Amino acid sequence: MESMKDNTPDPTSPASNSLANNVFRDLSASLVVFLVALPLCLGIALASGAPLFSGIVAGIVGGIVVGALSGSHTSVSGPAAGLTAVVAAQIANLGAFDALLLAVVIGGVIQIGLGIAKAGALSAFFPSSVIKGLLAAIGVILILKQLPHLLGHDNDPEGEMSFSQPDHENTFSEIATIFQGEVHFGAAVVGFSSLALMVLWARMKVLKNSGIPAPLVVVLVGVAFQFMLSRFGSGWSIDTSHLVQIPIAKSLSEFGSFLTFPDFSQWANPAVYVAGVTIAMVASLETLLNLEAADKLDPRRRNSPGSRELWAQGVGNMVAGFIGGIPVTSVVVRSSVNINAGAASKLSAILHGVLLLVCVGLFPVYLNMVPLAALAAILIYTGSKLASPKLFSDMWKQGRYQFAPFIITVVAIIFSDLLIGILIGLAVSVLFILNSNLRRPIRRVVEPHIDGDVVHVELANQVSFLNRAALDTMFNQAKPGSKMLLDASESDYIDPDVLSLIREFKEETGPTRGVSVRLRGFRDKYALPDETQFADFSPGAVQDRLTPTQVLEILAEGNKRFHTDRRISRGYGRPIDTTAGGQSPLAAVLNCIDSRVPAELVFDLGVCDIFSVRVAGNVIGTNSLGSLEYAATVAGAKLILVMGHTRCGAVASSVNLLEAQKDADQDNGRPHLHAIVSEIQESVEGDECRGVATMQPAAKDDFVDRIAKKNVERTVREIVTRSHAIRSAVDAGDLIVVGAMYDVKTGVVSFLTADTVSTSPT
């Protein structure tokens, strides 16, 4: 996608933002879009079975009327290849082109209504994989469809974008006939020269920065080649079948005869209204998709208002229908050419419509000198930007849920047409969304507990009917005797069908199967009140039944949830209310005051689950030891955990002071730090820290981490040695004192007691 910006001036530079520069860029881009749009307008009209001039009228209206009313800065409107089948079918059904024009007017009225009703908001639901698939498919089709024109082989209209062509060939069979010798050498010379010039212009800095659009030069060179080759005989001379062919009026009255007006006598014909609705729906869908695609190509990433675009397209179709034009939509081919040519604003789209009006009316003879091969080169180069290998590579890296809808959209559009391919892509994308919701629609976390594991089910912000199947599957898989907590704290909306399923499982199905269900966070209007939870805090009964080893395992499991980003969403209101009369924490944790190591979060615990004693360097002193004695011998905690951590600032400072043979008071005038520093320095042996100041940063970090670990081990020993009460509880088997190290880079806690729990609980 980035490659679309290759020929575009930097939109953030001051020069790019000047009014004069923007006008010049819009004018030059409009010339390029005009030259590309001209044969496309004729080709689409021919492929639709409509008069040739109706395509020109649609192009003029799409440029001037829609361009002026649109809120898009880059989108270009006109007759669309995606509507050729619809228009052709409706002309056949209604029996006359003038009846179709009335249907176009009706379709425009409907589109205006859709715009007023803000239907453009639907574009927000188009998956990005489908939009990118549309862009890539258009790029591939441009290359495949324009290759025969590049070689002067295909005389079919350039606007034909469907797989099946009017000459009963298809995209690939048409290319295959090239190898049977049906190549026009003169057109091929123009085509390959033009393509080489486009590539050269993009790669040579002096040309790229000249401000002259390469496509305009290509057209002028193509016209010059056409005149030169005409002197080399019929084998090289480019005849009219390989040139732009605009109807030429000999007088103003004859020019007016090209226009067709709607047959208002058909106003009572129901088929006309059916055709109008069909045109409105298809044109609106195609417009919104192409608008999203154009916004993704815009270097400035500006957003186009979808509802305003529908309103603008409706006005455009009403005008087109009144004066004999086929339906218009936003067109990604012209929009991509517009962006690639450096357009700065919607002035480019308007000017391209003005150029169509003026040149077709006044200078058709000169326009009919432009070789189709030159225009094919421009479109092929644009196609190579849309379908860049990088886009396919990026989509592949995003995984199958993005790549599969993307590539299916690409293939479907190539082998059918734009409308059918898009619908297939959208359908596939919806299937993947449904599958994704079935597999992972909710967050499910299992929390070990003395009374049995508790399955925490956290509902999403918006719980739609798409989540019903996944919830039903999860309910059916719940084992007898299990506990389930449904948490709707983050849910703003829950579908009534889902509420009914939850209510039935909680009140009837769950109890029948032996599954205990509790609820939390449901809005009052759902009449599903909160209940006492399973494991939001540690009541006294739970504390009494747990062994010290089981408490350690609970902490290990909590840390595993923390560092794998699967923390449980806990409600704090009820634990606060319930524990107001007392507390029964499972453990006491002595850890550093470092802001990166909050114990409750590190072990994914709730209110009242642990005592937290924090002191710099996690050292033991009179006050901290007294706190631990209270936690273990009075409040009944089963575990004392001393937790140090890597990259500890207190340890590093203590090591630096020891090497410099200073104490805290001498170094910085803060004597109260001495008690902490002296405790940490007890873990350093002799001259162990000599040369620390000259160590490389990585080596110094490793050394500090080793001292931090030794400090934890020493603190564990000192707690048991200094406190008779704690030592007695340990000897009785009612308490264990364990050390641990927290890695600030990974979030993993490594326990230093190998006989009770894994040293790396991952």
From TrEMBL:
Topological category with respect to the lipid bilayer: Multi-pass membrane protein
Database matches in InterPro entries: Carbonic_anhydrase, Carbonic_anhydrase_sf, SLC26A/SulP_dom, SLC26A/SulP_fam
Gene Ontology, cellular component aspect: membrane
Cofactor-binding details, from the entry: Binds 1 zinc ion per subunit.
SMART domains according to UniProt: Pro_CA (SM00947)
SLC26A/SulP transporter domain mapped to chain residues: 25-408
GO biological process, one term: transmembrane transport
Pfam families (alphabetical): Pro_CA, Sulfate_transp
Primary subcellular site in the record, as a coarse category: membrane
Residues bound to Zn(2+): 592, 594, 645, 648
Subcellular localization: Membrane
Keywords per UniProt: Membrane, Metal-binding, Transmembrane, Transmembrane helix, Zinc
Residues spanning the membrane: 27-45, 52-71, 91-117, 124-144, 183-202, 214-233, 271-289, 310-329, 349-382, 403-434
GO MF, one annotated term: carbonate dehydratase activity
Cofactors: Zn(2+)
Protein family: Belongs to the beta-class carbonic anhydrase family.
Protein name, entry field: C4-dicarboxylic acid transporter DauA
Origin species: Rosistilla ulvae
